[in-house]
């Protein structure tokens, strides 16, 4: 393997690559030291460059060895595949078992030798798969094997006694002739003719082609040799030649179809020694001359012309050259017989032209739908001289003259090869790359190759451009640094250092961009001159320039802004001393650098930046980057504005010290220590309750300062520290310590302010808890279920309140009980305030703390007293908590509401429930909850009453909807049908309402009376004729006043007509004539057969009853004048008397049961007095006309 590898290194391509690598190694050694990558020169040391050069050559040898190894493996894979293929080792049926075994062994031994020992004769290719492959086809007996054996090629297996590998049954199938230059596959003649067992031979032939395609996908073969015996063409009939041409054309077509490419075809006419005179003509040739080419080679043309004319032209030239050499040959030959044959050979050979032309034209004839084979040439050969020559000319002449031709003597079989070797080596093997390509495979491989080449080219181009850009960028950066530095120096000399943050931002951005631009050079691959590195010299200068702007521009701008803010706050009437102190502290840190606190300064810088760029996020982000860079440079001592500092200190001292300390504690608790607040809105939830923050004073967030944690762990624990810092040495105020006598006063004042704010905060947190909007009984059911559950939001709120407002003295019994309930204990102490502080303070603070608090009351007592009524509700000390009973009652109410909501008819269920409570008031959940609410503190009282009242309102509303639906379904349609267009409900109606309809509507147990008793009686209070809705818990059904008024009218009508308890309407009345006009003789009032006649005499009364016994009732008033003329007012029908009274203008006289009506006819007037039989006068006509059944209650 190594021998062949080193031999491959001597190839021209390998030597050329090696030469370029030597040039690269020289460039690395002499110029690599100036290579700079990211500011580093990795090849500066000579040892490194030598190592890189060695690495380059090692990589070259590794890659070439890998290529050689891959080629060797591919060769072995090909041969192993041939060995493993059953079809390649199949034998013919005519072989004996011993012969089969012998051939198999020789086949395997030969292939293994080719696998393990690559070829040596080919200087370009060492492996079998790299050689060109040719397939030789032709009819049986054409001498294909003889041609190859006598070709003069070098076959490496010949030294083992094998010219060819007989792997497929010898000549019965095919022989593999492996030379140093090519692989020639001698196929069996039956593959070509397929004239015995066509199906078997055709399948074997196609299978053989598939095997070739399997072994060599890109180029299964490099060419095709058509071996044809010239005697078979010259001495057979025309039909036999045509059949043979068709067979060969079919085989060529199958090759093209199987391989998918255009194959060069070489036509080899064998056994040319059988042409009479061939042996004598060419016998004088030396061995070298016998190796030359004798035939016609066509010029390469993709669009090849017709074969016949091209062949004929070349063939004539061959014959001409034969004739040209005749004189010399005949002069050299002494034997007359041989001279005759020499002389006749050109003519004999030339006589074959028409036959050969016709034969070749038939073989290479193609249609318009198939590609034309690439015929490269037609050649004439002879492998051995044996057999009997033929003489077509003498034969033809003899047949013409009936003369028997002379008998030709058989050839001796001397075994000389004529015109084979050069034809194979110099023409066919030389054109090995002329074969077409497997289009689909080559297209795919070409795409991969083109992609790889394009990628490499793009990479090289990109690296080159990147390198050049780096060089250009370095030069430009150096120029920019110099120009910008000069600009900044000029600007710094003339600039106002007290400019605002907005104005100095562009300058700061420019300085930072200069610095960043130099730093960015680390990302460029640049080559700098030897001993010059621009980035290493530019970066310090750029960084120094930027830092000078931070301390010279930005810091003064910030301190000036702070000084202005301090001055503004100091002069404000209601200045915030705590804010002023913070601003002054930050200002002094930035100017003097004393007691510098980076965290405080960072927060202050961020606040200044946000205030300056509140509407410009981009500028705010840029300025924040500058401020962060400035913070890394601080502290830096600068001049402070002393008058502003003194004024601020003077203003701070005016504020009570206790207030100042307390304000700082409030601010620090939220900003510095970030005590966790309590979200009351989250505690309350959103299902049943909510906090109404829209109302003034409503609070949903309890600051962490006012929680149990803030009370114990911050306020009490840190109060001594704040007092100490304020009464001791104060660097912000520039003052010394304060007398100890002020400690106690300060502590008491701060505790008072804290407890007051603590109580106020929690009162605001619970005072505005409201019931959510409840729009339906279903929603009320959900709310009641949540309020009655163990984790009720009301319980949670009161629990949080109790946890944060029940603040016992550590170590007391109350503290132990609370700690046991909570599962944790606050810090232990000795029973006084100072004890707690002792445990929370450092040892050095204890004396000051004791002095500050002394024996002051425990601060938690005031807070606990303020919320004791509410805390008692959830205090389980005495067994069941007071709120548990309220929750239980909520559960009972939830059961009542659920019964209504889940009933098949919720409206009827609500009606039954409300009706039951109205008919028999009892101590139910509603009453009990109202009673409990009365004794509970706010806001529990309001919340309980809210849910009770709202639930009752919803039950009433549901009941009203149910009753109203019944009214609209059962009463309104009947009422409209009876009253529509009928008298007396419509005064001018022509039709009367029947007495039965009247009774059905308004009589006892009638439609209206029955509905009222069934549905409305429990909800209406009747006082005389006044109907009023019943109000329970401040809520009624919501029946309209109009509906109540109409129901009252219905009862009045019923009392007027059915007062005696009858089932039919009846009205008794008395009529008394009281006046008759003197112009009249008499007046008559008549109802059916009953009448009263008045003739200016005394008043007489007449009793009447309505309705009368007659079906067609008539009522009339007649006035008879002095001339006996009669004028009559008459009405008929059931309601006739009511129509007469309506026409007469009935009016009341005295009381509700007496009426007077007058009749005037022809200017004669008669007046009557009507007295009803009851106080409820049925003749109150307005009662009927104003009665209606309202569409809804």
TrEMBL record:
<dbReference type="InterPro" id="IPR048677">
    <property type="entry name" value="TssM1_hel"/>
</dbReference>
<dbReference type="InterPro" id="IPR010623">
    <property type="entry name" value="IcmF_C"/>
</dbReference>
<dbReference type="Pfam" id="PF06761">
    <property type="entry name" value="IcmF-related"/>
</dbReference>
<feature type="domain" description="IcmF-related">
    <location>
        <begin position="505"/>
        <end position="806"/>
    </location>
</feature>
<feature type="transmembrane region" description="Helical">
    <location>
        <begin position="446"/>
        <end position="469"/>
    </location>
</feature>
<dbReference type="InterPro" id="IPR017731">
    <property type="entry name" value="TssM1-like"/>
</dbReference>
<keyword id="KW-0175">Coiled coil</keyword>
<dbReference type="InterPro" id="IPR025743">
    <property type="entry name" value="TssM1_N"/>
</dbReference>
<keyword id="KW-1133">Transmembrane helix</keyword>
<feature type="coiled-coil region">
    <location>
        <begin position="471"/>
        <end position="498"/>
    </location>
</feature>
<keyword id="KW-0812">Transmembrane</keyword>
<feature type="transmembrane region" description="Helical">
    <location>
        <begin position="48"/>
        <end position="70"/>
    </location>
</feature>
<feature type="domain" description="Type VI secretion system IcmF C-terminal">
    <location>
        <begin position="1069"/>
        <end position="1174"/>
    </location>
</feature>
<feature type="domain" description="Type VI secretion system component TssM1 N-terminal">
    <location>
        <begin position="201"/>
        <end position="454"/>
    </location>
</feature>
<dbReference type="InterPro" id="IPR027417">
    <property type="entry name" value="P-loop_NTPase"/>
</dbReference>
<dbReference type="InterPro" id="IPR053156">
    <property type="entry name" value="T6SS_TssM-like"/>
</dbReference>
<dbReference type="Pfam" id="PF21070">
    <property type="entry name" value="IcmF_helical"/>
</dbReference>
<dbReference type="Pfam" id="PF14331">
    <property type="entry name" value="IcmF-related_N"/>
</dbReference>
<feature type="domain" description="Type VI secretion system component TssM1 helical">
    <location>
        <begin position="963"/>
        <end position="1061"/>
    </location>
</feature>
<protein>
    <submittedName>
        <fullName>Type VI secretion protein IcmF</fullName>
    </submittedName>
</protein>
<keyword id="KW-0472">Membrane</keyword>
<dbReference type="InterPro" id="IPR009612">
    <property type="entry name" value="IcmF-rel"/>
</dbReference>
<dbReference type="Pfam" id="PF06744">
    <property type="entry name" value="IcmF_C"/>
</dbReference>
